[in-house]
Structure prediction request, 435 residues.
Amino acid sequence: MAVNHEYKLFPKQREFFNSKAPICYLCCGRGFGKSYVASLYIALNFLKGLRIIALAQNFKALNEVLFSEILTRLQELAIPYNFEKQGMKITYGDGVIYGASYENIESIRGLSRISIAVCDEAALAPPTLFTALSPCLRGEGIDPYIRLLSTPRKGSFLNLYAKEHPDLVEVIHAKTTDNPLITQEQLQLMSNSIVNEDMLRQELEGEMLDIDSDASILQLKDYPTRDSGIPGVNYMGIDLSGLGADNNVFTVANRYRIEEQVKIQSANSFELADIAERLVQKWSIQGIFIDITGSTSCGALDVMRSKGLQVTGINFAQKPFDCDTGNRCANARAEMYLDLAKYVKDGLFVSSDDIKTQLAYTTVFVNQSGKMQIIKKADIKELIGHSPDEADSLALAVYAMEHKSVSLTKDEERKKASEVAARYAYFWHRDNDIE
Prediction:
């Protein structure tokens, strides 16, 4: 695409403009000028009469950064555009720019005949980004392009996607110092805020850091690259949200693939039981393991059983099933995740980048008793920005495959659930100053 001669672009910026790849990712250090490049790319294509989606991490960034830059470019070009601020929409002739944020990514699904999607700070986008964009970038005569610009973020779905699909994504790496307008004082100020070498490589060098770790239960190389197509016997794992604001997740899986995953944030015990019943009927499920660590789980468990579902309650803190046969796991949570790692290495196909990220941050260590233990769920949540509910649910499904025949008695389940529920209630009341 030809750039107006009045605009001076750095070599890496010009490379981004000239890319013919359907998906191009400008992966750059802080201060490189990505928002400027994004706004110019949008403005010049807008003047060609194209329909464009402009995405940012949240509404504030969309309004104060990306759209502010776009409007500045249009003013520089003396274009008599129309800006509907309430709807974040800019029009001129046939051209349209729709603004949206990753916080409300589903809002773009009603758009159509979009030629270009430009995603600022794309490393902060959810794993559903491409799924949400796909229905918009289609139509007769549409030649779609997705343009991603971001300082990389360790553990983001975009890192995984770009590394696993080099044939689909052209990655252009740019350092902070590739912007010749950055002064030494500005560079020093940025460097002073960076605490280690990895962050320096990410924030200033624009390098996508590998999330693999020797302590991770799974590394990217461990995953099968394709679905074997072999039919399997289905099991289900259910991870419930407890007292928190996490998601209730139902995963139907067999030893070859994940067949379906249902996620719902707010639901009562009867609604949860209805979901479980529907999935059992649809997939002929042979066993169900449900997380009963949280205080709200027992009600859902009772309703499911009243419907005739054969459900086994699992408390993540309970003893591992194989503890009498030399198992070195500290608890059921460690055992189920190590079972999951074994199944993946044996051929269980996982396509979700979000689950892979959750599992990459699920690390194992040896505790003071010499037992293998998994990093706390709260620590994983802090690292990836959300709870690893999907991974927990998948691990429970695999646990059902491996141990359905040796489940706890109902009395043992009740006892374990009551103990943990009491601890949850104590801490919740304490933290909320309720007597």
